[in-house]
Structure formats: C-alpha cells, structure tokens
Write a structure and sequence with these properties.
Layout lengths: L1 H25 L2 E12 L5 E10 L4 E9 L9 E8 L9 E9 L4 E6 L10 H6 L1 E7 L10 E8 L20
Antiparallel strand pairs: 1-2, 1-8, 2-3, 3-6, 4-5, 4-7, 7-8
Length: 175
C-alpha cells in the first residue's frame, strides 16, 4: 500500500511539474501584441490575420492565419510570406524579411523574427513602428510568385487612411 501511495505521489508531482512547464511556455511573452487584418489580394477568396506578439527578449513572434478557397488542408502546399517596407499598394517593393511560409495543411505560419534581410536585428517595438506590409504569395517562383493571396499593412502603414476604402496590392519585385 505504501508503494502505491508513493507511486501516486510521484505521478502527481510529475504531473504538477509538467503543468508548470507548460505555463512557462506561455510566459515567454510580455503580453504586448497587435493584430492586423489581411485582405484578399487576388481572385482567390483568402483572408486572415497577422498577430505580432512581443517576447520577453524583445523580439517579435509573428503568427499568420489564413482562411479561404486556395488553401489545401490535405496537401503539402506552402505559401511564402514576405515583409515589405512601405504601403501594400507599392509596386516592386523589396523583401525586408522572409517569414516562415503558411502551410496549406495548417493554414498558418509562426516566425520568431530576430533579424531582417540585411541581417540587422529587429525588435518588436521597431517592427510595430515600421511603415510596412505583409504579403502572402501563391507560390515561391514562376507566375505564382506574382499572385498575392492575402496581405495587409502593419505598423505605421496600418494607421494611414486609404483613399477608396480598400487598399490596392502591388506586385512584389521578382528576382
């Protein structure tokens, strides 16, 4: 009987430790976050959100979630996510940072952004102050690269009014 009680106590202690470790995972964040809407950018009915959360180390975690008809939950499709400087309607905008692609299977992407394309560091505070946008492409190359499934302005660009109530989406610079 004593062995059974000791075994149960050990199991409960282990379970308690496991729960506290799960709580530690959520405490990596400061609580500062901002959510941006992503609008459809082409003939595909795709929209979503980009959530930027501040981590305790000052970096930013960017989660992109999409919904729509171009996503393939049973397939292996990946949709590249680019961070560009400037308004989303600017044509030929250079890629400022590559984020992890949205997968068709999960309809989402998560990136801990610590540096941009030129390898300089970026913080959450710098990111949410940027005049920038996110664009999610149908493909990484060929004609699909020029198809924007969804996108939206972030940071300072998100606070600028549009002239017609809806922002136009400019095609990214192809290389």
């Amino acid at each position: 009987m004593e062995k059974w009680i000791l075994g149960m106590a050990a199991a409960l202690t282990f379970g308690a430790c496991s729960d506290s470790n799960n709580e530690t995972g959520t405490s990596d964040f400061t609580g500062n976050e901002i959510v941006y809407a992503l609008q459809s950018g082409s003939k595909y009915d795709v929209s979503g959100t980009a959530t930027i959360k501040e981590k305790k180390d000052g970096t930013a975690d960017i989660s992109v979630t999409l919904k729509g008809d171009a996503l393939d939950p049973k397939g292996t499709a990946e949709f590249p996510v680019h961070l560009h400087l400037g308004d989303i309607s600017a044509p030929d905008a250079d890629v400022y940072a590559l984020l992890n692609p949205v997968t068709g299977k999960t309809s989402g992407s998560d990136t801990n952004l610590t540096q941009v394309a030129d390898e300089s560091a970026i913080t959450y505070k710098q990111l949410v102050a940027l005049d920038a946008c996110l664009k999610i492409h149908l493909g990484a190359s060929g004609p699909d690269r020029d198809v924007i499934l969804a996108g939206g302005n972030i940071g300072a660009a998100a606070t600028k009014p549009s002239t017609n109530g809806r922002l136009g989406l400019g095609v990214c610079k192809s290389e």
